[in-house]
Predict the 3D structure of the following.
Amino acid sequence: MALTAEQIAQAGNLVADASTLRAAAASLRQQFAGMQASVVDAMDLRDETPALRVGARAIYLAASDGHCWSVTQDPAHAGAFILAE
């Protein structure tokens, strides 16, 4: 699913408003049908650049080649949100 800048901003608002990252992931799954959302430890993404930072929280975009997932900066190829704090 390709994401627009507006949708990424909307995702940021959902993440900012959620009480926990797990709640944020659930909200993202509900709001963005077809997108996956996962929560990982920030240390796992220490060498990656988030698509968006919301306070202490970070939103990364992930793309899949059908087998493996990787962090992407290209919203046109995003198939998942990865959240870290």
Observations:
- The chain has a mean pLDDT of 95.
- Helices lie at 5-17, 21-31.
- Strands lie at 36-39, 52-54, 57-64, 69-72, 80-84.
